[in-house]
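Batch job 17 of 40 flagged for manual review because the log was empty.
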Amino acid sequence: MRGILRLTLLASACGTAFTGTSALAQATSDAPQESAEPAPDYNLDIVVTANRRSQSLADVGLAMSVLDNMLLETRQVSSVNDLANLVPGLSIGNSGYATPIYSLRGVGVNEPTVGAGSSVTVYVDEVPLTLPIFTRGATFDLERVEVVKGPQGTLYGQNATGGAINYIAAKPTDSFQAGVRGSYGRFNTATLEGFVSGPLSDTLKGRIAARGERGGGWQKSVTRDDSLGKVRKFAGRAMLEWEPGEDFRAMLNVNGWQDKSDTQAPQLIRVIPNNVAVPPFPFVTTAPIATGGARAADWDRGTDFDQNAWFYQGSLRMEYDIADDVTLTSLTAYSKFRNRSVHEADGIGYSAALGRDIVNGRYDLASDANSFTQELRLSASFSIINFVLGANYQRDNVDDIQLGYFDDFSVVSNFFGVDLNNTRNLNYQRIRGYGVFGNIEAELTDYLTIAGGLRINNETRSFQGCSADSGNGNAAAAYNGFTNFLRGARGLPPLSASERIQPGGCITSDADLVPRFRFDRLEQSNTPWNINVNFKPFDRSLIYARVSKGFKAGNYPSLSAGNNAAFTPVVQEQLLAYELGFRSTAIEGLSVEGAIFQYDYTDKQQRGRRDTGFPFGLVATQVNIPQSRIKGAELSMALRPVAGLTLSGSAVYVDTKIKRYTGFSIEGPLVDMKGLPLNFSPKWSVNLDANYSGPITSTLNIFGGGGLAYRSRTSSQLAASSLYDIDPYTLINAQLGVEDRDGRWRLWAFGNNITDKHYWTNVVRFADTVTRFTGMPATYGISFAYKFD
């Protein structure tokens, strides 16, 4: 850690502690250099849309990271997980299911339930991807990515307590353009991406883009000659922009993706009996621990651990200029998602004691979701006033079914005369929400701007759920005996013929010990707000102070439970944030920004443990932490000391603490967690980058660079031992290539995680096993890009 601190301080002293994701930094490093031409102005404004209108970044009183298309291309960003190594303070973890886990500045929740939502909202051109699972295929053919930190509930909806990620798609062009980009690298991974764009008539422009990725298995079985991890992905987007007159514009965006890749197998690191009264079978306790780096794992032979997930979305954006500087905007979108996937859960594939593979723990997921959103807003600028007024409506339908297999584990052995080996978790949610919002900025002087925003939200969730027999009658037989046992203890008669659990039926019981669905309804209202004061002490410099309050909606869990009370929802969380920051590009070739912040949490939603009673006992589910807080600071810089060379970097410090909460740890005991840190919140996130571009001949440029991403230790679970730690890690990447000086083509070699660092992003417990999900090992290859005009 001391070495990292010294490196950060040295970088800061040299002017290199700015965000490695700065669009300025990338623009300077990738621009062709003509020695005979005058030096360009590298303090040109970066235009962003964080406040739902185009503004210079220098005028926006928010902490932001901006990644431009050249950076995304050179760094081989092909998935949401790749962003975590480019944006300090951002973590994206593997939940063990199909849902990515977002955390920004320590604000996030490790919850895989499809309908749960995220504390970090994600948008494409201001159109919401309302569920985290929708976001998996958004990272292609982009103009830039904007990551806005801190509560953004007034403009980006009630769930943006941590911030917002806005993907800006590349738009149709006024003249014909086309391009193709591809790469080939380790594990026989090949990608090919292309676009065609241009005018179709005097009033109509279009753009079509597609990306395909194919690769071999990167995980290796520790017990046999087998691999897992093949990649089969496709994504496409078609856009039409129509402008029949000067006062009306419309943009139709139809996009989608499909993923038929293998799911990732976790690494087994420990066997810990979940039920000490019935220890696990010997071939479970003697299963080989995964050693040998990031690639080592194990899984059941004869099972296809793959997926067939797809998503499509259609959106229509219409803008009408009612008058000069007064615009009415409508955003309409419909999204549909489907997933069928099989996930290894325990990391066990082969039993040396039995001399054969065993079917042990896994999840088969079947998720279907659709979403309709409508936003209507009015934007205007009058003299010193800029304002936005609007309303939105959201309707989500989510069917989330988890079929769990847990053969041979202690908790289910000989359960009322039956070896209970599988159940289904059924979670159906219908979500309806609406909001009315406003945001106003008053430029009181050339130096002082005051801004504020308010949103009034209401959301209703209807829930139907239970744990159920898988359809083979195994769980039904066990739970009929169990339920009659409990009824007898209360002096009640056995279940009647109509009440008995049938194959496929619910096994969880209500308060009267009758197995049935739980039907529930959760209605919640909130009012996120913010106040900003922006002060410009001199040209191209900004100091801002911001106070904001955000909310994240409550939701219902998916879990295995014997009683319906376990499906009690978590209530909405509240976050009150204070931030003081600055940014400046006043010095030629130098950009600097920083912030200090404090978040006060009420009822933070958290993946924890709940005692559901016999037989499942403690199960992983969502809980509310009554009081917690986060303090932190950021410092960033970018420097261009000589023509063609850019040095950049950033350091983010986050200190989290639980102020009041007593709950079950993942290891069993009830713990007073006061004073303990939150999970998924590394104290230090450091990024350093160096990039160079310069001429080598009259027609060729050479370009290259390297980057370092460091994340300090954190824990995946609350109040857990070091077994559940996510160890500190440093990832290093590098690129080197040539391009023609007209920017028509580029050819470069790349390496990511070139030291082959073994790191992981999550540690989970499944029945009697503890496993972890690793990041990718070293990858390297060759890329090319070519543009047609």
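Reviewer: the log was empty due to a logging misconfiguration, but the result itself is present. The domain at 2-31+47-159+181-788 is CATH 2.40.170.20 (Maltoporin; Chain A). Unflagging and moving on to job 18.
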